[in-house]
Amino acid sequence: MALAQQSSPHARRARSTSNVMLWVMLASLPGLLAQVVFFGWGNLINVIWCMALAVGAEAAMLRLRKRPIKFFLRDNTAAVTGLLLGLSLPPLVPFWVSAIAVLAAIVLAKQLYGGLGSNPFNPAMVGYALVLISFPVAMTTNWAEPGLLWENAPGLWDTLNIIASGQQSAVDAFTMATPLDHYKHNISSRTATEVLQHPTFGDGVAKGWEWVNAGFLAGGLLLLWMRLITWHIPVSFLAGLAIMSLAFGSNADLYAPLSMHLLAGGTMLGAFFIATDPVSAATSHQGKLIYGAGIGVLIYLIRTWGDYPDAVAFAVLLMNFAVPFIDYYTPPRTYGHHKPRRGLPGKNQG
Amino acid sequence: MATKSNSEIIRDGLWTNNPALVQVLGLCPLLAVTSTVVNAIGLGLATLLVLMGSNLAVSLIRNFVSESVRLPAFVMIIASFVTCAELLMQAFTYELYQILGIFIPLIVTNCAILGRADAFASKNPPLPALLDGFMMGLGFLFVLIALGGIRELVGQGTLFVDMDLLLGPMASGWAIRPLESYPDVLFMVLPPGAFIGLGLLIALKNGIDNQIKARRAAVQPVEAGSKRVRVTGNVS
């Protein structure tokens, strides 16, 4: 390339996209480990399958678009998209559902919009939302039951067979809905203590899920510590969700409690790994605060009063829509200049 | 305005100025009802009928209606034809009429029809206007059928289901189901599938146009012995 990559004067060295993406993958390992421990081999198989397919689809699209294949594959972004999909899809989802999700993410949401840096929507979440709308049965009932898995876990080979068999809901014996889904559907006719008797909630917040979320939280803190992401989006994301939950859902007999919102769904994965995608998120720090808070509030709204039990994908996509608008109103002040004025004509205009 | 030859009108309506693929007009019914082939044909035929009628009528009155009140007059004409189409569908294909519901009366607001009335019929004699209405309607109908076919096939794994609603009992056995255990892809049945399907169809059309253009440019003959501009040496 003729353009040498230059770092800002205060950064010691330039960080390549490829390097950043490698660290993102490493940071997701604790969460993936917790998923494998509590939900079986399914997630690991999904991650490998989705990553391989994502890289393949990216290479094919680059070839069709006559772009340098090696140069773009080396930035690892396609692999991260596949990784995020593998982490968020249910462990025992049929292989063709994850394949459709990956192809929609890479082909439709990323390459057709012009490749890395040009996609207005988070590719992984486009793929996830597409299969969630298309195959509700496969997408909501295939979470492995952690309680049963402890006693009678399907091994690596059995899990592979289940995924490869392609049935949408083949194994009722050890699959079930997510804790959030379960709570939402049962709370209307029972009290909170009765609902929490169910084995899926375990002794803590939600069996297994709390450790998965803790794993993603740890990985996210690593990314923060390495300054690969800034604190603005995760903090405002979690704050938006928490404030909504405390303001409207304090009665556990009617709504899922705050602890469940934070630790029982895809919250931490969303806050640290998905919403922080630098391409589709807002740009300035002020804009990131608005963007993250919007996602948090939308997640609570959809989870509580919408049709879907978990809502990270829809909330992220809806706020992706709003990013150009947010960026327009929150340009940072350039050093040595006044803050640019935007919006309704004020006294300084004309 | 220079009058267009008949072959130009035909090519415009079906391809170069296709109301759905190039003008991108009339999207509301296009996206809303193309979930199956039979819905698409039903709505496409109704639109075709209205488009021909309104183009003919607008062309006939073009010298008697003043410029300032032409749009209300056009809308009245279109509304009358839509009412005719609606009553006809109620009489002959009542079940399809019920499925299409509000989108039959909504043909009044289809910009493709008002667009043709204002851009073509009000400036041309009746016969070319009638031909233009027919060709534009046919172009719209083809896109509707293509989109309906894609969405029905990908969404439900079937093709030509319920054709008897439109064509009578002889078409009741036309339904095709290529794969026996096909999972429903709800996404393609819902509106986002229509947007993506239409986007891909437009891309396909532009791709074909580019191919044709490239092929034409490649055929330009270079005579042996002719010189390039500012380049010494001969083309062998």
UniProtKB/TrEMBL annotation, chain A:
Modified residues (FMN phosphoryl threonine): 178
Keywords: Cell inner membrane, Cell membrane, Electron transport, Flavoprotein, FMN, Membrane, Phosphoprotein, Translocase, Transmembrane, Transmembrane helix, Transport
Keyword set includes DNA repair: no
GO cellular component, one term: plasma membrane
TM annotation in the entry: 20-38, 44-64, 95-113, 125-144, 233-252, 258-276, 288-305, 311-329
Subcellular location: Cell inner membrane
GO biological process terms held by the UniProt record: electron transport chain; transmembrane transport
Bilayer topology annotation: Multi-pass membrane protein
EC number(s) recorded for this UniProt protein: 7.-.-.-
Cofactor dependence: FMN
InterPro entries for this protein: NqrB/RnfD, RnfD_bac
Keyword Cytoplasm: no
Pfam families in UniProt: NQR2_RnfD_RnfE
Record's subunit section: The complex is composed of six subunits: RnfA, RnfB, RnfC, RnfD, RnfE and RnfG.
Function description: Part of a membrane-bound complex that couples electron transfer with translocation of ions across the membrane.
Family: Belongs to the NqrB/RnfD family.
Name the record gives this protein: Ion-translocating oxidoreductase complex subunit D
Species whose genome carries this gene: Marinobacter confluentis
Source species taxonomy: Bacteria, Pseudomonadati, Pseudomonadota, Gammaproteobacteria, Pseudomonadales
UniProtKB/TrEMBL annotation, chain B:
Gene Ontology cellular component list: endomembrane system; plasma membrane
Localization per Swiss-Prot or TrEMBL: Cell inner membrane; Endomembrane system
Pfam family membership, one: Rnf-Nqr
EC number: 7.-.-.-
GO biological process, one term: electron transport chain
Assembly behavior: The complex is composed of six subunits: RnfA, RnfB, RnfC, RnfD, RnfE and RnfG.
Similarity field: Belongs to the NqrDE/RnfAE family.
Protein name: Ion-translocating oxidoreductase complex subunit E
Phylogenetic lineage: Bacteria, Pseudomonadati, Pseudomonadota, Gammaproteobacteria, Pseudomonadales
